[in-house]
Write a structure and sequence with these properties.
Layout lengths: L3 E4 L3 H16 L4 E4 L4 E6 L3 H11 L8 E3 L15 H10 L4 E6 L5 E5 L4 H10 L3 E5 L11 H8 L5 E4 L10 E6 L2 E6 L5 H8 L7
Parallel strand pairs: 1-8, 2-8, 4-6, 5-9
Antiparallel strand pairs: 2-3, 3-7, 4-7, 5-6, 9-10
Helix pairs in contact: 1-4
Amino acid sequence: MKTLVLNLRDQSLCGKYLKSAAQALRAGELVAFPTETVYGLGAHRDNEKAVERIYKVKKRVEEKRLTLMIADPGDVIKYVDHFSHTAKRLMEFFWPGALSIIFPLKDGSDIGIRLPDNPVARDLIRAAEVPIVTTSANISGYPPSTDAQQVLMDFKGKIPIILDGGSTRFRSPSTVLRLLDETFEIIRHGIISETMIRCCLENTLVKV
């Protein structure tokens, strides 16, 4: 497989490249793309072979779940059946942004969702028109990729498209938080600190 690195800084071709990447996702292919934190590797959630492939190329253990990435705040209601006060406050304050939230569902399961603060990521998800699950675009156990060339080193010949949006803004992973009724548990520490989260919930943090 040939891996194409599509330079999104060429504005005249950006729309064409996003369309090609969206078509690849719908067809069950994997696509790497920038977010504000690190590069992500995306797959069509409802395509079993695509999801299997994302675990295989990343060498990721099956116990580690993928995160559903959404493009707009209202999309969350398609997947989550109830929201606590804590959930509403966190979404209002940190979305779009570097916070992945694991929501409990009424059937006893849960789902991890993130709304990224990156127009390329959101435009790609909108164009794909299918649910997109993601993980960081790196081999498991290695540092996450913060530019397209790092992604290429890991996945050349293994995925068809890398969307090159330059270096990521924060160059560090998102924070992953699990909601527990009206409390929470930090699953992975990242850009958004536990102190910031607690200040948000205590109404002492001002959004700028």
